[in-house]
């Protein structure tokens, strides 16, 4: 299978931080969430994938062909959308639209205005007069207006209220359905992307600790809980945290039968897997 976007042995070294080596395959027509705590290396990896800047070592492929990050035409099919919005602050929204549209041959005027109207962004005001949420929505539309095939979004919903967040994801789902593209979203807030993403990449300390289809990963584990006085011994495949209220943890699905009979078993959410496996256990398998 040829994946839409692939990285082999991607590495970046800063003075106090090493990212990778990372191997990843990103499928087409899906949303992939990159989840990790602050400083895990999400931004460094997203930027490496689109060459802003490229990984210091390793190769990135688009539809099976190695990307040459010195080639400016990659900007036609790839976009990196940061949530650090400092754009054209004194322009009116209309002036900014005219400017951004002029930068792209493939700018889709109808699509852009459809979503501008849905998002109710005023166009006659200066950008600095817009609320943070409106700026973030406009920023997203600016990033997608030329209809790129690889969309990298760095913590796109940080600071958005729940309705704006929903609108944001509605747009992304409509976009992916129309464009058959790949969307990669980084976040440190798992609940944000639960139910939205099809694939997930968990990161910790500059490394990818787990990745794959969300449903498959959820099937690999079970969440268990016990009264707090019933301790459970952690061992390979079993991670538990005891609080005053209960002992709770995750277990590899194939080891469920080895737990005490009175455990309550549930299917874990992505958030459970992030908390127990990625952040606490590191590696249960
Ligand atoms: N240009 C740089 N020079 C030196 N160190 C850097 C540089 N950029 C990032 N780092 C370091 O690399 C590490 C990973 O940063 P990165 O921004 O990739 O993490 P992140 O997971 O996106 O974090 P956050 O969720 O806080 O945005 C951090 O320790 C950061 O200080």
UniProtKB/TrEMBL annotation:
Residues 2-230 form the ABC transporter domain. The keyword Nucleotide-binding applies. Gene3D superfamilies: P-loop containing nucleotide triphosphate hydrolases. One of its GO terms (molecular function) is ATP binding. Keywords: ATP-binding, Nucleotide-binding, Transport. PROSITE patterns: ABC_TRANSPORTER_2. It comes from the Bacteria. Pfam families: ABC_tran. This is ABC transporter ATP-binding protein. It comes from Evansella alkalicola. The lineage of its organism: Bacteria, Bacillati, Bacillota, Bacilli, Bacillales.
